[in-house]
Sequence to fold (377 residues):
Amino acid sequence: MSEESKKNKFNVQPGEAVGIIAAQSIGEPGTQFVLRVFHSAGVLSLVSTKGLPRLIELIDARKKPKSPAMTIYLEKNISKSFDDAAKILKKIEKIKVSDLISDFSEDLEAKTLVLNLNKDKLEQYKVTEKSVFNKLSKNTNITVSELENNKLKVKLKKIKKLKQPKNKKSDNKEAKNDQEEKEFSTKATRVAFVDLLNLIIFGIPKIDKAVLKENNENEFYIVTSGSNLEEVIKLEGVDKSRCYCNDPFEVLNIYGVEAARNTILNEIKTVLDEENITVSVRHMSLLADTMTFYGLIKSVGRKGIAGKKESVFARAAYEETVKHFINAAVFGEEDKLRGVAENILIGKQIQVGTGRVKLVIKNSDLKKLREKPKPAN
Fold:
């Protein structure tokens, strides 16, 4: 097929209802999607939300996706070195205190916690006991001391106070208050211990797992479960121009609306490709453009694009009909009847297709036609 014929194939007739065609082209294959969320073993498990759940996430513009993920490429001078890539991986993957211990013992009255460090886990994550001690020592709310046999003793200095419920009427009010205060102190200590076990020793918050991969060009890159684009691009050795995140809102905050638009387009295309469904990229591109037209990411539903239409009839035709009519009556809204949905509702010709074409004639030409003698029968 020649280049000219390829261009002609993608031409659109003037007045074509491209929005309706795009909606049909994406919506109809959506009925063939899988409904469940896959959980695959290995690297594939890092990105598990697929099919219809993932498509709904994107179209509804949900700010917290179920499976955020990143693909992090490295700078050209270090991308082919396994050791250099492994060093950056160590800086990215989140390692908590609970990942480095085999067990622990707590003393709630003394507010102390003894951590039994696991040698195998320390070697696995390439972490030393001294580095763990130094990291914990930076926390101003605790004091840390080293014990024998790879043990660390942690004592709490400050504890967050929990909200206590209002006391009910009681005969022995003082005894009850003392007992309640002791119970809440114990509960607050346990909460502090849980926070301590979840304390991040190394790595970047929100990134739970990271895996090193190699592409066809013998270049190493990192795939993560969880995303924190803002912190990742600050790392030395990371190629900021090639980092990819599947969360459009995070991309919007860091790289802007055009990058967010491309992310939405790419993610929708990926969902369709994984289901072996072929849809022209023009339809997906139109959807991504519409969602990001105002410089923000808007959902397609009643809280986004459909609910923000200028026409009262168009909003009422989608959802919450009575609500829109009442609000329009209260605030005296006027419907200009410029769109498609509202004109269909009142039975007026829509400005799409042949309805967009109007015949125009000059008054002088019309006068000549009227003055022209009719042919004799």
